[in-house]
Design a protein that fits this description.
- The protein is mostly helical and 404 residues long.
- The chain has a single domain, classed as Ammonium transporter fold (Orthogonal Bundle).
- The protein contains 16 helices and two strands.
């Protein structure tokens, strides 16, 4: 490794942002675990925590290479170029961080990969077995996340067309959000609908705090160095989330005439999901507008979901799917060249629209196939008895031990 180009300050910055992104995974587990009934809480958290191990293995055994290896026809990267961290340990890749070890980039991107698929589990809460989820998770990463990430971040065909996504509005939130919708439609409504909307508000509070905290690293780390772009992405993250939160609370209060902590947290996450693709391309003034738009769009989508009677248990499609979709389009309106060389224009808007539409169609078709295949080869659905009894009692040994 050529130490003349290594910037230890940037390495330290990336270590911190990588840890922040990793911390979001248990935060998501607590958030989802608190929102579902207590009898399903451990299982819900298991869906998320198991991804840490499975995705890390897949990422090491070729996943990273498929995303960031030498481009093959604009579709995938060379599967064996970085297989088992070959050519990663002691190299600096100027395309992915000119002043940090390539190994640091490997770890930062791994944290993105880990948290993506578990996002969709909030939509299908109570309807998929743990073993079924493991099968879906593995195939979903291989067939959806890895290719789409390459198209956008690894020099694939969308990147060649000029499509941009700063921190994962399309790669992460659109893929997970629209996969959530497919999961809802494929698995159908829960046979046992919970009597209340949440099980443990303490877990919801803890999970929300961790997600808000970690998201600053999620977005600012995309700069791959501690500089101006990181600072503006950091600022935009906070501003968009705050404005989305306040507008969402107003909308919810106008409907219910009561305040709700769950509505507050949902608005905050909607703002974060929507600013994610834009964070490093827009000004703070643009972030204000994006936060406000995020609240109106995502709130309306959740209302639409209820009217359609889609059993999206935790509103994943409306918040993450449509938040990421909206933010990806807003790059074409609010991007400022002085921030990061991308300008809002009709041409950029159309490129963004085409790119995100391609990802939506591909994700929906492929995700349906994944659910179908996994269901056929082993069955992935929970039974009505399991839903009535509670998934924790059915699938978790810890609960069995306490009942003996």
């Amino acid at each position: 490794m050529d130490l003349d180009f290594l910037n230890t300050g940037n390495v330290a910055f990336m270590v911190i942002t990588t840890v922040l992104v990793f911390f979001m995974t248990p935060g998501l587990a607590f958030f989802y675990g608190g929102l579902v009934e207590r009898k399903n809480s451990l299982t819900m958290m298991m869906y998320t925590f198991i991804a840490i191990g499975i995705v890390t293995v897949l990422w090491t055994f070729g996943g990273f290479s498929v995303v960031f290896g030498k481009d093959l026809g604009g579709i995938i990267g060379s599967p064996f170029e970085y297989f088992l961290l070959n050519n990663v340990q002691f190299e600096i890749n100027p395309n992915y961080g000119s002043s940090i070890p390539f190994l640091m980039f490997f770890m930062y991107q791994l944290m993105f990969a880990i948290i993506t698929a578990p996002l969709l589990t909030g939509a299908i809460a109570g309807r998929i077995t743990i073993s079924g989820w493991i099968k879906v998770l593995a195939l979903w990463m291989i067939l959806i996340y890895f290719p789409v990430a390459h198209w956008v971040w690894g020099g694939g065909f969308l990147a060649e067309l000029g499509f941009v996504d700063y921190a994962g509005g399309t790669v992460i939130h659109v893929t997970a959000g629209f996969s959530a919708l497919i999961g809802v439609l494929y698995l159908g409504r829960r046979k046992v609908i919970p009597k209340r909307d949440y099980g443990n508000m303490n877990l919801v509070l803890l999970g929300t705090a961790i997600l808000l905290f970690g998201w600053f690293g999620f977005n600012s780390g995309g700069a791959l160095e501690g500089g101006e772009t990181a600072a503006i992405a950091f600022t935009n993250t906070g501003i968009a989330s705050a404005f989305a939160t306040i507008v969402w609370v107003i909308l919810a209060y106008n409907r219910d005439r009561k305040f709700s902590f769950v509505e507050l947290t949902t608005g905050a996450v909607a703002g974060l999901a929507t600013i994610t693709p834009c964070a490093g391309y827009v000004s703070p003034q643009g972030a204000v507008a994006i936060g406000i738009i995020a609240a109106f769009v995502c709130y309306s989508c959740l209302i639409f979901t209820k009217k359609m009677k889609w059993d999206d248990a935790l509103g994943v499609w409306g918040v993450h799917g449509m938040g990421g979709f909206t933010g990806s389009l807003l790059i074409g309106i609010f991007a400022v060249a002085e921030v990061n060389k991308v300008s809002g224009s009709i041409e950029q808007f159309l490129v963004q629209l085409m790119g995100v539409a391609i990802v939506v169609v591909y994700t929906c078709v492929m995700c349906w196939i994944i659910f179908k295949v996994c269901d056929v080869i082993g069955g992935i659905r929970t039974t009505e008895e399991a839903q009535e009894q509670g998934l924790d009692s059915k699938y978790m040994t810890e609960v069995e031990d306490t009942q003996q």
